[in-house]
User: Which sequence fits this backbone?
């Protein structure tokens, strides 16, 4: 079999614009799903991480059970739960995009919550004592003392999780959302060139995730304490 | 090319304008009387029928799916661990070209979604195989072997990161003292570095193995009849989504928690006395 680059070139516009960015007739788009999912998942993850460390039992037990439960089941299952039950519960069909976004936020916030918790636990306890002594309340302590240090400590695992989330958005194609994977599927069914198509989107995915991991390394250097102090 | 039955939206989600109660089907209650009754579930009356899970063909599907998940995960796990040990060790050897080959493998394969790899190995790769090999694969369960290839190569790349971290967490002096006592480099690796690293990486490897188990559910998309496929099939045949997905979810949850519990015991049993330091848990 010969490798036909022309198939890739003639379909690159559809794959990249529609599949990756989400500009086109089908909605969807990997980036349009991944970016809100990362932002919302991060926010929910911070809340979950804080909740898991809460002193009150009625806050931290539900958070712990939630995290352990979600971490024990595959993402496909979570997506199917939402895909089949949300329309039944609210009584009308929900667009694939919103099903996927909800499922991703629910799923990834559990993993991000664990990372945030590890980050908070890595901050020396004296910091909290010092903040309390300085007269800060819980939210002030969290916001300006604990979380900045905690997040900085876990940037590598956090970005790794974002990369995982970015890769996981390909699962939205299972329920029919027009993301990069679904676009490649559609094109390869028309062109009968699956080898070229899937290899091409593998390279596109790789380029995105690899630049994310480079960004993480840059952030790590930029936000290291030595550098912050020297400024 | 085989059509993916999961990509088209089942028509039954479009609720008819006038819902009519039919035994064994989903329907909405238009009156308020179902709202907070036991059979009402958030305002719709849904008749639970848990027996669909063990009724004549469905119980068998579920069991077969469960066994297939175990088989697929186990076989892929063996290959993934082999690849992981091979490339994880290669990434630490003092010879640059080998390190670069290993890095290229790891960076490329773990940074692309597993789903894309599954499609690639199932739809794309057979086209470039020689005709005889392709015939053999087609007649010996192509879905299964594509899934094994996809999962083990993807997770092999991720395992090798875990194993590399384990190896690098071992002080260099261990290798140096091994060489000083007259071992060759490969002997120092085989007899000293790898046995210690294996113990150190039990927690992250367990984590990664559970990821593999959960990710084996993606094999459903290329038609491997594993657990998620079976629950999906039961759902399709009976329209009992709630029961089917509850069964699947609980089985996965039980498997994951069970394995985590056992591995915790194993970890404590094989711990090297006096060595407390653990490698960082792999999250990727």
Assistant:
């Amino acid at each position: 079999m010969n490798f036909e680059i022309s198939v890739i070139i003639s379909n690159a516009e559809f794959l990249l614009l529609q599949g990756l960015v989400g500009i086109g007739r089908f909605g969807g788009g990997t980036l349009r799903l991944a970016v809100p999912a990362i932002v919302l998942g991060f926010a929910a993850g911070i809340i979950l991480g804080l909740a898991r460390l809460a002193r009150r039992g009625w806050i931290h037990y539900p958070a712990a059970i939630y995290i352990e439960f979600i971490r024990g089941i595959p993402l496909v299952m979570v997506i199917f739960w939402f895909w089949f039950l949300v329309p039944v519960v609210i009584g009308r069909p929900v667009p694939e995009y919103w099903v996927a976004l909800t499922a991703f936020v629910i799923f990834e916030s559990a993993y991000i919550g664990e990372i945030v918790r590890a980050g908070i636990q890595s901050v020396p306890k004296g910091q909290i004592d010092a903040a309390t002594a300085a007269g800060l309340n819980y939210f002030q302590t969290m916001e300006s003392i604990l979380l900045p240090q905690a997040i900085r400590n876990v940037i590598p695992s956090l970005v790794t999780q974002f990369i995982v989330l970015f890769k996981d958005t390909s699962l939205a194609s299972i329920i029919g959302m027009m993301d990069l994977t679904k676009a490649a599927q559609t094109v390869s069914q028309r062109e009968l060139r699956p080898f070229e198509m899937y290899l091409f989107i593998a390279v596109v995915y790789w380029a995105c995730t690899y630049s994310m991991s480079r960004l993480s390394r840059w952030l790590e250097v930029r936000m290291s304490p030595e550098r912050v102090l020297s400024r | 090319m085989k059509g993916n039955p999961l990509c088209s939206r089942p028509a039954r989600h479009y609720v008819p304008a006038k819902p009519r109660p039919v035994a064994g089907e989903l329907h909405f209650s238009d009156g308020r009387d179902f709202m907070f009754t036991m059979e009402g579930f958030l305002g719709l009356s849904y008749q639970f029928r848990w027996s669909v899970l063990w009724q004549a063909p469905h119980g068998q599907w579920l069991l077969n799916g469960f066994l297939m998940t175990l088989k697929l995960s186990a076989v892929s796990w063996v290959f993934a661990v082999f690849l992981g040990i091979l490339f994880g060790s290669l990434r630490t050897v003092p010879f640059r070209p080998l390190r670069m080959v290993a890095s290229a493998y790891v960076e490329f394969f773990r940074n692309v979604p597993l789903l894309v790899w599954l499609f690639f190995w199932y739809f794309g790769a057979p086209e470039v195989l020689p005709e005889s090999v392709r015939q053999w694969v087609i007649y010996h369960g192509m879905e299964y072997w594509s899934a094994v290839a996809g999962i083990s190569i993807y997770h092999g790349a991720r395992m090798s990161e875990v194993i590399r971290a384990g190896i690098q967490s071992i002080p260099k002096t261990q290798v140096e003292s091994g060489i000083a006592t007259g071992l060759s480099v490969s002997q120092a690796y085989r007899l000293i570095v790898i046995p210690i690293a294996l113990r150190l990486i039990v927690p992250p490897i367990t984590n990664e193995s559970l990821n593999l188990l959960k990710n084996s559910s993606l094999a459903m998309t290329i038609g491997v009849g594993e657990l998620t496929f079976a629950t999906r099939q039961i759902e399709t045949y009976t329209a009992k989504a709630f029961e089917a997905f509850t069964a699947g979810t609980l089985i996965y949850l039980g498997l994951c928690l069970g394995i985590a519990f056992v591995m915790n015991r194993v970890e404590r049993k094989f711990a090297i006395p006096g060595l407390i330091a653990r490698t960082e848990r792999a999250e990727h």
In short: The mean pLDDT of chain A is 88.
